[in-house]
Request: fold
Amino acid sequence: MTAVAGALGPAAQVPAPPGRRAALRTTGLLLGLVLLAVVVLASLAIGTRQIPLHDVWSALVSPSGTENDAIVRQLRLPRTLIGIAAGAALGLAGAVMQTLTRNPLADPGLLGVNAGASAAVVTAISLLGVESFDLYLWFALAGAALAAILVNLLGGSRAATPVRLALAGTAVNAALFGYVNGLQLVDLGTLETMRHWSVGTLAGRDADLLVKALPMLVAGMLLAFGLARPLGAMALGDDSARALGAHVGRTRVLSIAAITLLCGAATAVCGPIGFIGLMIPHAVRVFSGPDPRWLFPACALYAPVLMLASDVVGRVVVPPSEIEVGIVTAFLGGLLFIHLVRQRKVAQL
Reply:
């Protein structure tokens, strides 16, 4: 636990009194609920066409068939719901990944999930002629699962260590993205189709995709929350975790399964959106601390805030065009990554 606290800076190493710590965590979660409500309203009201909040409310509770009603209910509401679900999944997957690997720079892509999903979708488009986003969902999920299984096997399966998992994930990522880029270069039709999926966006996604992916998202979240206690023990090191009664190998395998379900389903619906799983755990540790029992719910709450806020920013910076949410989060995540590396605190893990 000292190592994890060290990664968060000097202030994190001085434990707050239990009462103050509980109050800080509760306040942080309540603030997250307020921020989520604000960005949901912003997502429904702000865009190429600005819609007053009272019209948004009317469209939701008593639609009268106006154009504003159609925009809110048919375009922005599905987009917002997908952003909430995908954001929560990516944030939670990032928290599980960082806790599992004891690496503050880890995000779900480290397990090859994004690369596996992309490789499966590009194969479906180029070699199988698939053109339906509904089918992309299942190919992306299958590709994410196969990539995660491969990384786990290369990392040593139940005997895997955080370092071996990270190295195996890096190798699989490089190989799969090389395959994706190569297939797109030799098939321009695939390149044109993939660019609409691979950039990572909430625009143009049908709510039916979310309905189909929801069982996987819910299963991944339940599994992640159920692993909070043994993952907290593993943050002390494998030997200490075993002494505390945690099943290290089983916990690691189930954690990889949770990450695959969460990130695979989110990637299948929205395309690969990076850095949310990296940024949010760092941000919420300010009040949640490193304990996964508090960290995981906080990440699941604040990640949709970042996702929707980034989506709203992308709508308004270059009107009437939009910047995809994946580009906005990549820009923000790149700045955070540079900040973390410059502080050199990651070396303390």
Summary: Residues 123 and 183 are 8 Å apart (CA to CA). Residues 2-348 form a domain with the ABC transporter involved in vitamin B12 uptake, BtuC fold (CATH 1.10.3470.10).
